[in-house]
Amino acid sequence: SRQGARDWDLFAETAEGYEGKGTWELYGVRVLFYNGELIDYTVVGKVGWIDTKTKNMKIEGDVRTTSQNGYQFFSRIVEYQSAKRLLLSPEKVKMIAPPEGKETGMVVLGNEMETDIEQNIMKISKDVSATKMLSNGKNFTIKSNSASFSGNSKKVSFFERVLIQVDSLRLEGPEAQFEYSTEAKFLNSLLVKGGVKVSDIDKYATADQVRFEVNENRFVFNGKPRIVQNNDEITGDKIIFLNGGKRIKVENIKARVDGK
After folding, report:
1. Cα(180)–Cα(177) distance, rounded to whole angstroms?
2. At CA 164, angle to CA 159 and CA 170, rounded to 5?
3. Are strands 226-229 and 72-81 parallel, antiparallel or unpaired?
4. What is the DSSP letter of 70?
5. Residue 182 contacts by C-beta under 8 Å, 6 or more apart in sequence?
6. Which three-class secondary structure state does DSSP give residue 184?
């Protein structure tokens, strides 16, 4: 416990203590981490060590960390820093998001994980890549430097050099956020903001932000939207790529054709 509140419960198949060392070596480990009286995270692994003074832990061997809302993280090692209530994995990690109806959950790979138990935020960083299957059966991929996931909701964000590939369209920007339906079951849209560039085989477009509406397979550009195709440039109040960019709609169009 911590200051009268439950911190964690630890279970193991066997445990060995060493006199004078203040540590226990554990086999077949399962640890439940609490926020209040709720179990927020469960960590299981083959072998573990705990320092009886600091309450710091290390768990190794096919480690699986599961959040209460269904995110699963797989890694070789997880360390628990008791004073800060942090779960850390300094090596490669694979995350599988909970399924969305009949659709499989997003898969995310990275080289480092940090989970803040108090804030209930999970972060993956360093060469992050993610794959998500859409309702139409197609996949889209995301690359970034970091990504965060909420343990309380389905809030998902990607940060720093975000690159998204949807069919032949390529989106680049500093930040992307997943936006879910009211019931928080299905992905409605993906918002890329902070200055975005979208490129296709024969054109590219820029805007302050771009929303990819998944079910409609369209891209909505807002905030100084501009599209360039060959030597033609079009601006307007809003630009919309329909049918994945095969058709274009511009509101209050202003065009510059052949550089004139």
Report:
1. 10
2. 135
3. unpaired
4. S
5. none
6. coil
Distance CA 22, CA 13 (A): 20
Q: Is 46 exposed, middle or buried (0-12, 13-18, 19+ CB in 10 A)?
A: middle
- State pLDDT tens for residues 80-93: 999 999 999 999 99
| pTM as predicted | 0.85
> What is the rounded CA–CA span in Å between residue 195 and residue 44?
41
Please classify residue 18 by burial: count the beta carbons closer than 10 Å to its beta carbon, then call 0-12 exposed, 13-18 middle and 19+ buried: exposed
Within a 10 A sphere around the Cβ of 141, how many other Cβ atoms? 12
Residue (of 140, 127, 181, 177) closest to 155 by Cα position: 177
Amino acid at 83: A
Q: What's the rounded Cα separation, in Å, for the pair 34 and 51?
A: 19
Residue written as token pair 């059966």: 137
Q: Which residues contact 183 (CB under 8 A, 6 or more apart)?
A: none
Structure tokens, 93: 């990690």
- Taking only the tens place, the pLDDT of each residue in 62-108 is 999 999 988 999 999 999 999 999 999 999 999 999 887 777 788 99
User: Which residues sit opposite 12 in a β-bridge?
Assistant: 29
Specify the DSSP class assigned to residue 243: G
Q: What is the DSSP letter of 97?
A: P
Using CA atoms in the order 109, 119, 195, 146, what is the torsion angle rounded to 10 degrees? -20
Contacts of 215 (CB under 8 A, 6+ apart): 135, 188
Q: Largest alpha-carbon pair distance within the chain?
A: 85
Q: Which residue's entry shows tokens 């939207």?
A: 225
Tell the residue number behind the tokens 């077949």, with chain if given.
28
